[in-house]
Design a protein that fits this description.
Layout (H helix, E strand, L loop, with lengths): L1 E6 L2 H4 L12 E2 L2 E2 H4 L2 H6 L1 H17 L4 H8 L5 E6 L5 H5 L4 E3 L2 E8 L6 E3 L16 E5 L9 H9 L3 E5 L21 E4 L11 E4 L3 H13 L6
Parallel strand pairs: 1-4, 1-9, 4-5, 9-10, 10-11
Antiparallel strand pairs: 2-3, 6-7, 6-8
The chain binds adenosine-5-diphosphoribose.
Length: about 230
Amino acid sequence: MNIVVLTGAGVSAESGINTFRDSNGLWENHDIMEVASPEGFAKNPELVLDFYNKRRKQLLEVQPNAAHKALAQLEKNHAVTIITQNVDDLHERAGSTNVVHLHGELLKVRSTGNETTVLEWKKDLNLGDCCDENHQLRPHVVWFGEMVPMMDEAMKHVSEADILIIVGTSMQVYPAAGLLQFASENVPIYFVDPNPSISSSERVSVFAEKASTGVPKVISEIENAPYNE
Ligand code: APR
């Protein structure tokens, strides 16, 4: 089976990384536009770099949870693509090998002068940290108002899926939220979220619970489903 998994902040919540919309539109006490937009970076680059430095430090202190691990195990029997809106690397650390990061990656930075210069980066990023061509480096994340370069690849994966699993996303942010429309008509959809934005239907099975318990249930349902024989 070709399984495509779409994940959002909720899959990492139990690892200790806060979601966005659960905290009144504030991201770790910051207005999202202040820390996640090109305008915010132009206005106060130090604040933005400091914000991502804190996120990077936090990420290095947390661990993948049972949901990340269960999704990684799926690769034993299936072709699995994870499309995540998260900038953390918890899917990779749990063992998933095919992860598409729609909104970029916290442990990478790129040049503000040449966006194809992307570097691995685990330490703090400061003003004055430059690429070889002397352009300031910035977090390799997709900010509001910026293009989502991985979108075409994500659409292709969704259109080729036999099964779709969605975990821990409010499905409110486009273009990620629009990905579902590219799935073939008969593809079963499993949705795990304690506060689900989609309701159950003939095609959609909703598991209104946390990722750590819901994801293993979805996987056991898939393994025992008639279409898997
Ligand atoms: N398990 C599963 N889901 C959970 C859990 C949990 N333990 N805890 C919370 N959730 C769910 C919430 O119910 C909510 O539906 O996770 C979802 C988080 O939604 P958002 O905070 O909106 O996160 P996400 O959908 O990933 O946001 C998309 O918005 O701000 C931008 O770029 C940012 O990638 C992010 C995008």
